[in-house]
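Predict structure. Input: Glutamine synthetase, 437 residues.
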Amino acid sequence: MSEHPRTIRVAAVDLNGVMRGKRVPASYAKKLDKGAVRLPFSVLNVDIHGEDIADSPLVFETGDADGILHPTGRGPVPMPWLQTPSELHPMVLHHDDGAPFLGDPRHALQEVLDRYGARGWQVMAATELEFYLVDDSGETIAPAHSPLTGKPMHKADILSLDALDAFDAFFTDLYEAAAAMDIPAQAAISESGAGQFEINLNHGDAMKAADDAWLFKILVRGMARKHGMAATFMAKPFADDAGNGMHVHFSVVDAEGRNIFDDGRPDGTPELHHAIAGCLEAMADSTLIFAPHANSYARMVPGAHAPTGISWAHENRTAAIRIPGGAPAARRIEHRVAGGDINPYLMLAVVLGAALVGIEDGHMPPAPITGNAYDLDLPQLPTDWHTAIEMFGTSDMIRRIFPDELIRNMVLTKHQERHKITDLNRQQQTEVYLEAV
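Output follows.
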């Protein structure tokens, strides 16, 4: 960092992808490896309002016990959207005896990656994140005002450089901040909604890709505020405009650095097809991870660029699983279901876990589709929150991916949120989700 931090933040990620932690003096930085900061286990299992889960065993039943925060190895990173020089230290929660707290989403992803590692494999991943810049100063949110004209953005302008350049100061600061935080931000484009943009993060180690996505969402929201706007990754901020998605691309390399999905042929290896089969088999039961909030289901409607049918295809963006074209050595899977409101650690864990289950079981997928997936008779993802919660909580496949403790915590959290949020009107829901996700 160019300036010595005056304060630091220590934060872990809760089930909704929200930072939970403490602001402490800069002198704590030297003590973090020794477990200087404690945090209740229940804090990583609060609802989207930041409130305790009423019937969680992590609260009164166990005396609301503390765990110990340990550095993830990713930090510290600067927080350039703040006025005072500050550092963020990403943390992960452990028990006093050093065992990982199984309700921590980052541990859940690490468990899946360790299973790949046991085979001598490393997962490489990249994410594409969509978000809106909005004006939330009025009674309802609206597309952000153009810094050039002072008028609100009023139309979709796909791949328009003018739309990007209208926000040149914001994007310049965003890219400089991303570089300072070691977030590999790549191409930026204007998307299908007024004031909607997408930025791709470069591929790399899957855990770093999850860290990058989590930190990038925090950065975008913070930098938007610094520029007098708000940013949101809500799945569907505007009822009549495009939703926000988060696509993930992944491949797997062996100990010699060879892509296990590539054998030089157009169709790829058996492992590629087994992984596709696993992703398809787990997809319906995984919907709660891809669509974790009430607002998420407004995005999941046919013909709205969000997959609703369970299918795969080569070079077809209407399919839930797409195998991009290009050089065989770059053979990879693109998973296109998730909204921008997801927790990146849980999303990558469930996708990569499903792919590994497919490889372990040796299953083969159905034939790839051709044409418009929305016109085909395909098995469908659940279209309502309650069904997604029930399927996630009772799935044998999900239990092969996540520990029971995390599944229980997630189900309790989402049941509580569902009872609170479904009584709110759309504007009230928007206010809850605007910056939280």
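The chain has a mean pLDDT of 93.
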